[in-house]
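hiii so my PI (J.) wants the whole complex modelled not just the main chain, which honestly fair. so below is everything: two entries, each one labled with what it is. i double checked the lines twice but i was tired so who knows lol
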Amino acid sequence: MSIRNISLYVFSCVMLFACTQEQEKESTQIQEFQSKSMVGIIDGKIFSVPSPYEFIHFINELQITYNHTLINPVNNIKLYESNLKKCLNFGIYGVDVAYVSVFNQTSTALSYFSVLKQLSENIGLSQVFDAQTIERLENNMHIQDSLLIILTKTYREADKRLKNEKQKEEASLIIAGSWLESLYLLTQINKEKPNKKIIEKIAEHKYYADNVLALLRPYYDNSEEHKKIIDDIVEICYQFDGVTSNYTYVEPITYTQLKRTVIQSQTKLDIFNEHLQNITIFTEKLRNTIIK
Amino acid sequence: MKQLRIIIVLVCAFGFHNSMWAQQKKSAIDLCDNYMNDGFISDGQYYSHSIQKDEIKQTKITLMGGNTYRIAACAEQSKQLQFSIIDVQGNILFTNTQFNYAPYWDFEIKHTIECTITLQNNDKTLPKDKTILIIGYKR
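here's the output for the full assembly
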């Protein structure tokens, strides 16, 4: 092989290596991105978890009155020392912000966002609440829709960052906190003024209960505090076992031009009063343990 | 010298192809994100899958009654990414193969149902591909 040929061979190898490096770099980025979805993966399947936006949407339609005593007081933030409590309460305050924003409680919403910001600094999420986000919040505070969009974006960014930094436990705890607070608010609203729609919504939490439990289960042995909280969630899940479902298939209607399908199948959920009462009691007990 | 030129051209072409490929991979996520318009907001999560040939990936989901969802599924390379919605009895409620592999579709949900979204790469020339699934809510 001539020197020229060897040079060409080396040059080609270097170029190919460079190309492969770039390809691998991209591939790694995608792999990392893929790992961001791990939080919801259980037994190879990804499960959905409740989103604050869905909760807001439902509360908005109920036409109920605002009850400030239901939400976690902002002053409680000083009580949270463990990472477990900080994360769970981040989820709880997140739903509380959603709740107050439905009722246009502007100043309250701002103080709750401030609490979220403080907690975010403790759990490695401070970048989510940068100056630009806060400014956007202040400017849009009177527009409920804008606030909801920002909240959803914030939740999404937090979710992304936590998964990105491989803080799966923190992400799971935040999700669990959100789930618990939405269940708490619904059960309390129903306790004040029973409503068939709310009872159905509570029963629907059956779909989430096992997923939340599955997210937390890997951290059961982390501490006695973990064990107690997860045991209490198991108790709530047992009560959801009493929710019965009956599915009926109805043929969907598709509008091709609109790229839309109307799914009409029905699932009828029934919850016995005894289970509903127990869910209300157990949820209140656990939620009050967490916020104090 | 002619040989050198040919090799340089080939290597550069290969490099350009790889660069384009990397760009395509990046844009699969961006593309899916771009479908979250028309008043739809993502549920805050990306559901990523690496799909082998002849493999079906499943995402179990609860679609809440009274909501309209937009489901977008994008692959890094495949133009034949099949996504379907299957109910608990195994009935196919929707499959995009009937609509020229439409990358997104809207679903108006009358009553809350549990179902499964399946993803499958029907481009048999690709042994493996990465996919992104995004679920959005109508505001």
